[in-house]
Amino acid sequence: MIRAGAVALAALLALDAVSPSAFAAARIASGGAPGHVAAEVSAQGCKAMADRVDAIAGDAPVLLRSYDGAQGSGEIDTPALRTAAFTYDNALAVIALLACERRVEALRIGAALERAAMHDTRLRNTYRAGAVADKVLPNGWWDATQNRWVEDAYQSGTATGNVAWAALALLALHDATGQVHWRDAAAKLATWIVDNTRDAGAGGGFSGGVDGFDVAPVKLGWKSTEHAIDLVALFTRLADAGAAGDWREQAAHARAFLDRQWDEGSGHFLIGTAADGNTPNRSASALDVQWWSQLLPDAPAAWRRAIAYAEHHHAVGAGFDFNDDRDGEWLEGTAQAALAYRVAGRADAAARCLAEIARQFSAGGYVFATREERITTGLAIGSASTSADFFYYRRPHLGATAWAVLAARAWNPYAARR
Fold first, then answer.
1. Interatomic CA distance for residues 406 and 215, integer angstroms
2. Which of 6, 205, 269, 387 is geometrically suited to a Cys-Cys bond with 345, CB 3.0 to 4.6 A?
């Protein structure tokens, strides 16, 4: 028996060729999940992101700061975040703004990402927020204690998944405009991934990227299931868009690694490998790979078991935690869950997640990253870390807001919308 939510989603996907306004109208008319809650989340999130772009006068390329102050206004108490525009967050914002029918704002952020893709030696994890003039600038800050300018090794690094998301954002702009320069910039980023991270050995897949500064970059040997999902989508989209290159073979290479990360016994995806690039990493459980795998257009039906795994091991209240210690709610992941539920036709579950998100908007308009003051991930920030020092905090977050909009508008970032 086909669920009503799945029928509604199929009807929406058939509208790819119509205007954005017709797409939105049809979505509302379908009666699909989750009604007024989705409209509320969409309206707040779209306005917040568009207002941030519009606040920077003119039409210059722009990158948005990823985090606000703790209460949604005021200065951020962490120097490394005060002007930090994370590439991943801005790529998500491009796709979400297109879903919002705010093309002008999406194009301004996209132009900044394109400039970084075409002119930086490699795409960084983070740049300096604000208007972009001749070139994108690395993020940094003045440290009064050391009396010098400081930059961060992780922010200056290049994670494979972040490059993939920037390329997906550029492809979304290609789909929206038909202009091939967006596709070609995405292909340039994808070529960097292949040239610098592809493992031709028995382990296959693609490594994590590069950490640190150009003077002494550190290659990351571990491989990520999350990155593999991104790359399957990216390489397939490049092939479909007619980009020059053997992108279907690259997609198959990423998919082969992804398939090896599926744990049939427990019905979930492993987080990836250890630093050697081969040993399965069973020490941590990651929420996002369980949801993102559901978004791939050709996801096997067997992968739906990962939803039950996430519900059993990561659920916290009406939402989900990043890892399985369940010490708090990760709202970005809760939004990802809402979108995956909609793809799976589970309207009621999507509605519960979106209702939780609707309660977590800050005064400045962004969704908070977490419900609690701090939650763990079980992961390290970078190659120099000696402990699991990657935490999420209760700060208003661009990335969480973008995912909330994508979920509210039933917009799959892995699928072409033309």
1. 38
2. 6
